Amino acid sequence: MITLPLANFLAQPVGVSQFVIVGAIMFTCGAVCMATKRNALGILMGIELVLNGANVNFIAFGSPYLRNDAGSLGMDGQLMSLFVIVLAAAEAAVALAIALNFYNNFNSIDVDRANQLQG
Amino acid sequence: MDTSIYWPTFLFWFFAAVCCMFAIGVVLATNIVRMAFYLVLSLAASSGLFFLAGADFVGAMQLMIYVGGTLVLLIFGVMLTSQAKFVSMKTSQFDWTLATLAGFCLLAVLISAALAIPEWKGLERAEAEALGIPQTATPLGMGLLGARVDAPTRSGYLLVFEIVSVHLLVVLVGAAYLARAKRKRSAAVG
Amino acid sequence: MGCGRQGFVRPSEAPRNAHVVAKYINQFTEQLLQALGMSVDPNSFAVSILGHVIAAMIHIFLLLNLVAVGALVFIWLERKISGRIQDRLGPTRVGGKFGWLQTLADGLKLITKEDLMPEGADPLLFRIAPYVSFCASLAAFIALPFAGQDMPFVAQHLNVGVFFILAVLGLEVFGVILAGYSSASKWALFGAMREAAQVVSYEVPLGLCAVVPVLLAGSMDLIFIGDCQTGWFTNWYVFHDPFTFIVFWIYFTCATASVNRAPFDLAEAESELVAGFHTEYSGLRWSFFFMAEYGSMLLVALLASILFLGGWNGPIPVARLIGLEEGGWLYATMWPGWGTYLACLLGAVNVIAKGCLGIIIMIWIRWTLPRLRIDQVMTTCLKYCVPIAATMFLGATTWQFVIPGRAFFGFLPASQTAFEVKENWSDLLALPRQATSSPEDAPTHDPTPNPQPPPAAETGPKQTHRPENSPQPLTRK
Question: Would the pLDDT of B88 be above 70?
């Protein structure tokens, strides 16, 4: 039968480093999104991506399936992730309320218009 | 050596590819509604990653709270604030270059850190297959109530749970107050 | 009194259905190829893909058939029942006297319609919205079991089944919002906003109601919840205490609101919003929205049947009475395993029958009650459903604390077999730990699974695998 070059690659379990790389990519995308978007809601989406990248990291560090820690249940990582998700939801709610107020006052969602305190 | 396909690895690469692709899509898209849609797909794929790492409770919670709650809220916000002329706003080229450069540097540092630790290389296949199916719901519930099942001499997460609950209550009240219906001001200020 | 079972398969040892099917497919392929003269290594990469892919496709095919054929049957059923309620006959021409192929004819008509897209519409989002709704509706069936105990009929045996299904149900709202936004039409956007607000608001009391059977069983695993209701209808959770009885009706109300059925269907109200979020959709795209809606209806009805109405355990334990269980006379006359399979098949028929009953009630309510306005919908949710659900949750908790281990409003002792179902997450703790972990963590817990409680003298049998709030070692006795 044909031996594909992927054979070894897809036959071994992944480790924590692959999960951390995915988390890093999401984090960087979120950071770039926060830095470049002019729409306030675009910045909020960047924040969600950043928090999600951190969550992936937490889960990976705690998981017994990725590290050689068969007896634990990965609870620490999961619980920290849980709290991050809850706090992200809370922060998104407040940020949206602020963005709505901004829109109602300035009639624009462009954050470059928020320059009243400029020196 | 066992060369048959190991499905968790294949599924990991699938979900990771979807997640990263749509995260990059969020950065590159200009239409705000499409950005929101790509974000939904990216977070749903990362929920798949959580399931693969044995955290099915957190994966389901990600779907319910993050994707089904926070992102619905975000999309409502997008629709309330995106009149046609604000749907695509362009950033200057200089800002883009600077941000991408900084992003790549950060990514390089993080990836080199991720690949540098030998304990993170992953299990052998035989060991991984010997592990059972995760059943973390009851231990998580008990951990939130302060009783840790896997390390009974250490304390649980009761205090954090209480703090986060009160925090959520405060945020609920605050956001409802901030977003209350007010008399609309007429023209743009400043 | 027990029915002679050897004890249930521990979830950590249960053969995962797809792996077993895949193994058989691989063995079959190997034998087939050997018979044809080629020798192949079943362990090689390329061949090992085949078994699992076919196994996965079989599972998907079964679930997709359930949703699609279900939608077919329920649309026909709705037209017949609505006709009868309105004192007319309903479809009577296509496929014989009862018109049961009417939906097929409708589907053919829809396929031949022109595929329109409004001019200002966002093409990607407009096209993808029906599929998002349908995928969310179908994905929730992954964790829904149709039979339990020794041979669960479930695509994926999740420990957090209830939570997963509620989470995925909540994703259906994305299809609605995207459809409403991308249609570039005022009416579609209004309809989508109202429907999204309604679905998201009703998820809260839905979750509160779904948590009550979870607390009665002690686990979110749907197979566990179903297995705890074995026996006669007196063991059903809906008859467990008066609080759960009321919770069942609140759950049904919230489920009806969650899938946007009348009287909560103003998102589709013809008299108000043209057709709501799917105004601009025609032909096959529109039919996907409807398959998603009927799929969700079937899902919440099946979930209600498993959580409250006993699932695969009927009002009468037919399999036990006709000797089809292990140790029964009919079981002994069959090949090994077939008896269990037939008993589980009877259970699956039972679950689907109860789901159909739930859907018939939803259809009946739709054509009986007038439609609610949006403010009435939100009032029902926030002022009635949420407080009642919360109070009943408190009541059910208090009842379970004060009178544990009883069934049928406290009159009968709980079924023996309910005590034999174990979750066994403590098995994972018995595996060897990492060498660098601190020494006091490893030897303090006993690797044996929780001992089975003696049936007679227990006051709180289900509480033995939940220690009280102090961080003590897990073993008792």
Answer: no
